[in-house]
Every structure is written in structure tokens, then in C-alpha cells.
Amino acid sequence: MKHIKSPSLDMQTENRNTRDLVEAMLIDIRKDGEAAVKRYAEKLDGWTAPFVLSDEKKAELIAQVPAQAKADIEYAHRQIKRFAEAQRASLTDFSLDTEPGVTLGQKCVPVDCAGCYVPGGRYAHVASALMSVTTARAAGVPFVVAASPPRGDAIDPAVAYAMDLAGADAILEMGGVQAVASMAFGLFGTRAADILVGPGNAFVAEAKLQLFGGVGIDLFAGPTESAVIADETADPMTVAIDLLSQAEHGTNSPVWLFTNSAEMAETVSKIIPMVAADWPTGEVALQAWNNVGEVVLCDTREEIAEVSDRYACEHLQVQAEDLEWWKNRLRNYGSLFLGEGSTVAHGDKCSGTNHILPTRQAARYTGGLNVMKFLKILTWQEIKTDADTEMSSVASRLSRVEGMDGHARACDWRLQKFAGDQSFDFEVAEQERYA
Asked: Is residue 315 flagged as an active site residue?
């Protein structure tokens, strides 16, 4: 393995200023509640209007969305909803009898309230609104609150339409740490969220991390990552375009090329600046390529797969022969895009799989946002009294092996009560550990 191009920035450097600032803001909002949120909204966004989007204003915003844009948003919503509903259908309640009189079971129960953050800033993140709110609804969450930063005197009209179409019960025209905290604490007449989901900038991600524990979160999201696996059969121009298309997320968004073709590595590296020069967002994309882009040249496809799994990329494209081999071999990624016809933009916008995905190698242990994030897998059991003898005997002995005599006595009592062993002696039982 050889690095043809390495990043020039250290992505592991901790931003202590962000952490400290978010911590101070959350302390302030915990203390002063809505008053603190209003101060931050006015200071950071110049916002003094009501935060909860009214039905009248929402209707006005939706009326501004062109018909074609509405049709496209509806198409994406159908795709995302169908996939999320299929995920939900794959999870079932069940019960089974493990022994005569012993029944164990599982229930899939949605959380009561989900908070969905939709970023603002440079772009109008319509797809993020659909990805988060639609998935929560498909999971069966009864109340969903969504928040997005205002752009001028309102949130983006298309974002408002997407939130409404997906089924948000309340919409906050608010962004940043104050929006995350408002959803977590149930401010401005909304319900306190049980889970916070959705991408955001470094401050939003840090706020979710610091609130975790008191509330659930989907994942800790860093800058968007994308990688392309390309062999000698791939088209260098397609590879270059796909890498740059993801680099436009921001100047710290890594894009990586993994290849076993020296010619591919050289050609892509050469044409990326030329392609970027003709793009409206080329300056940002090229800066990301220069800052955090990498080209890794491997000897074999097996080595490419090993490298890819080590990076555990958020978005992973495969433009190579034998796609089935790659699908079966690769293990660590947020979402996989197989073949030249599949680009990350499809998944980001409308194909149906969720685009809120793990970054910073978190794909080693988790997938992206899905209906399961909004569900609690609850277990239950019923042990009939006539099945109690063996269960209580084993649990009693194991409890004493662990030195937990209180646990043991709860079982001993059942042996005495249900098994009819009226001569049961607690003191003797406590002395009889495994011989």
C-alpha cells in the first residue's frame, strides 16, 4: 500500500473552543430556559420573531415552492418512506417457550418524541428533513418536532414543505445549539425529545454529544466522508466527478480514492483540479481535496478491501469489476454504492436509503439512521409457578456463587412457596454453594 496523496490537515485535532462554548451555552439554557434561547437567537441569528412555525406562515412558505420542486420532494419522500417501512416490517414482536411454563418475548416500542435537526447555512437541506422525520414516522413515533435555522425571515420554503410532508408535528425556526437544547428540553410548547437525530455543524454535533445520556442521539457526526474504490476498468472522469461532488460539503470533508491501478491514481489526481475549475462550488471542493483528500494505491483488491474497512467510510462507492465480490467482502461503511450507475448523490437525495450516516470510523460498530434508532427493543418474560423449581434453583445457586444472597433469597422463597418445599432452610441453602 502506498499513499499517492496524503491529507495536509490533521483531522484528529480536538476543537476545545467548540466544546467549551457549547458547554457554557447548555448550562445557560438549562438555567434560564426560553429566555436564554431568545438571547442566543437574537445574538447569533438576529432573530426576534416567534420560534414555532405557525400554520399560516407554513402555508405561505409552502405556496412559494415551485410545482416541480414539490413533485421531486414527493418522489424522494415516497422512496425514503417505502424503505423505512420495509425496515420496520422486518422487526417483529415475538414470544417463545424455552421450557415448559417459561415464555420469553420481545416488543418493539417507539419512543414518545423525536427531535429532528435539519441544517441550514450554505445549503437548503431538504433531503435531511425527509430522512429524519419520515424515518421517525415510519418507526411509529407519535410526536416529531423538527428544527432548522432561518434564512432571513423564515426557514427555507422547500425545507418547510419537506418537514410538513414527512409529518412533523411542530417546526421550530431555530438553529444551532439553542435548537438542539430546545428540542431536548421541550421548550416553546413542544414535547421534550427522547432522541435527537440529524446532521449539523460542529456546534450541533457537540451539543448532541453533551446532551447524550439525558436524551438519546443517532450518532456523533463529523464532516461528510466519501471514498471511491476504482480498478483499471473504472472511468477516471466519473471517479473525479464523484469525489468532487462530495468534497463540496465543506473544506474539511475528506474524499478518498482506493485503487490498485497506478494509472487511475495518477489520472484522477491530475484531472481533479481541472474539473473543479469549472464548478460553481469548485473552490470549496478543491480546498477540501487539497486539505483532506487522499489517494491510496494498493497491490490487490483484497488489500483495497482491507484499507477500506480500516477507514470505515461514511459513503463508499465501488466502480470495479465483480460487484458481488465487493458487496460480500466489504464490512465497514455507512452506505454502499455499487457500480458506475450509483452515485452518492442518489443516496443523499432520493434513492430511499438514509443519508444520516456514521463518520470518523464509527461504521466499524454502527450503521446510519434507521427505524431501529427510534425503537426500544423491550423484553418480557412469564414463568409459570409450576416451572419455577428448576429456574429458581439455578438462579439461587448462581446468585450465591456471585455472593448476591438477596437475589438468592428471592428465588429460595419461590422454591418454598411454589415448589411446596416447606422445610426449605435459607441458612442451609446459603452454605450450599457448588461443591
From this structure: yes
